[in-house]
């Protein structure tokens, strides 16, 4: 069975057979591909005078065009989505970063296993540093403040891809011209 001109199919091999081309966004001359141009136009690129582009499905998955309940409009030829995303503060789930402290005078200058405590230190000019007993055992503690203490996170993008299996999309350069109903 001959394919329709412009038909796109997914194949598990690494070449485009005769009469087919990879869907890799390449420009084709209109003069040698006028029937295919009459179907695709410049939806996927090209200047529309001498060239037009094939769809570029490298690293993309095809989805149905149009809109439906709860969906935004998906126009033919538009590219959507991103491979990586950096979350903004508004996109993060609500959460708190607690910092515990105690109003009892500190008993140690070693923070391991302890919380911040009340402490005062007097330093004299030229004197050696005096270690502050600014920590107390974690047993008696209370939240210090409801607001965040410091910025957390690195702000780097993270992978946003669904689990995928790369294969080759190919498009028919020759075939039966599809008739409308």
What does this protein look like?
Pfam families: Collar. This is Microcystin-dependent protein. Residues 101-110 have a biased composition (Polar residues). Residues 93-119 are annotated as: Disordered. Residues 6-61 form the Phage tail collar domain. With 181 residues, the chain is mostly beta strands. Among the domains are: 1-59 and 166-176, Alpha-Beta Complex (heat- and protease-stable fragment of the bacteriophage t4 short fibre, domain 3); 100-143, no CATH class. The protein has one helix at 34-40, and strands spanning 8-11, 20-22, 27-29, 51-53, 84-85, 100-105, 114-118, 135-137, 142-143, 158-159, 168-172. It has a 4-stranded mixed beta sheet, with no helix packed on it. It has a 3-stranded antiparallel beta sheet with strand order 1-11-2, with no helix packed on it. A two-stranded antiparallel ribbon has the order 3-4. 11% of the residues are buried.
Summed up:
This protein has one helix at 34-40; strands at residues 8-11, 20-22, 27-29, 51-53, 84-85, 100-105, 114-118, 135-137, 142-143, 158-159, 168-172. The protein has 181 residues and is mostly beta strands. The longest helix has 7 residues, at 34-40.
Feature tags:
heat- and protease-stable fragment of the bacteriophage t4 short fibre, domain 3, about 5% helix, Microcystin-dependent protein, 1 helix, about 180 residues, about 20% strand, Phage_tail_collar_dom, single chain, three-stranded antiparallel sheet, Phage_tail_collar_dom_sf, mainly beta
